[in-house]
Design brief:
The complex is a heterodimer of chains A (about 110) and B (about 110). With about 110 residues, chain A is mainly β. Helices cover about 0% and strands about 50% of the residues of chain A. Classes of the chains: A mainly beta (about 110), B mainly beta (about 110).
């Protein structure tokens, strides 16, 4: 069964550094998402992306965040200058579209900001 | 967004049925009821969804009250692998690409 993959599984970075989290969605899916989950808290929506544009973003997704689909297969989340409070699990998800409504999630990247 | 209410936690014995309740008294006529679950250290995973009629799939069954103000996810024979946080989520349409809004869910513990 096709699955969403994410790399790295764990990223440790210093505060103020840039990080790029990578996701490879399921190949024929058209809608892409990033969510995050701070330890012990709810899964929170960050951003949705379709047709090479952001469809919706949450208040969390400020100017420090950006998303890109650089080569038609990868979907990346960049945090320009990480803060301590960015430490969380980041999940990529995708949805096929065209009448299906199931989002498929990746295993997540644990980001630790020191 | 219409809100859902779930118990914080539940326990069940292995190989017994589990009924996970969800209240959504402010549900609108176009809201679909979705269930996802999150196994330990994993991303959320789709379980089942429905609108008005009860639904069955290989993972679970979804029983929807006649007034749609509540629903119950039924795991017919719980295994240790079913230990997870279960989320009941309302979505406006069955065809949209809208985001998922997660609550705190129900943490299901399976007792061997």
């Amino acid at each position: 069964e096709p699955e969403v993959t994410q790399t790295p599984s764990h990223q440790v970075t210093q505060m103020g550094q840039e990080v790029i989290l990578r996701c490879v969605p399921i190949s024929n899916h058209l809608y892409f998402y990033w969510y995050r989950q701070i330890l012990g808290q709810k899964v929170e929506f960050l951003v949705s992306f379709y047709n090479n544009e952001i469809s919706e973003k949450s208040e969390i997704f400020d100017d420090q965040f950006s998303v890109e689909r650089p080569d038609g297969s990868n979907f990346t989340l960049k945090i320009r200058s990480t803060k301590l409070e960015d430490s969380a699990m980041y999940f990529c998800a995708c949805l096929k579209g065209g009448g299906t409504d199931t989002q498929y999630f990746g295993p997540g990247t644990r980001l630790t900001v020191l | 967004d219409a809100k859902t209410t779930q118990p914080n936690s539940m326990e069940s014995n292995e190989e017994e049925p589990v009924h996970l309740p969800c209240n959504h008294s402010t549900i609108s006529g176009t809201d679909y009821i979705h269930w996802y679950r999150q196994l330990p250290s994993q991303g959320p995973e789709y379980v089942i969804h429905g609108l008005t009629s009860n639904v069955n799939n290989r993972m679970a069954s979804l029983a929807i009250a006649e007034d749609r103000k509540s629903s119950t996810l039924i795991l017919h024979r719980a295994t240790l692998r079913d230990a997870a946080v279960y989320y009941c989520i309302l979505r406006i349409s069955n065809f949209g690409n809208e985001k998922l809004t997660f609550g705190t869910g129900t943490r299901l513990t399976i007792i061997p």
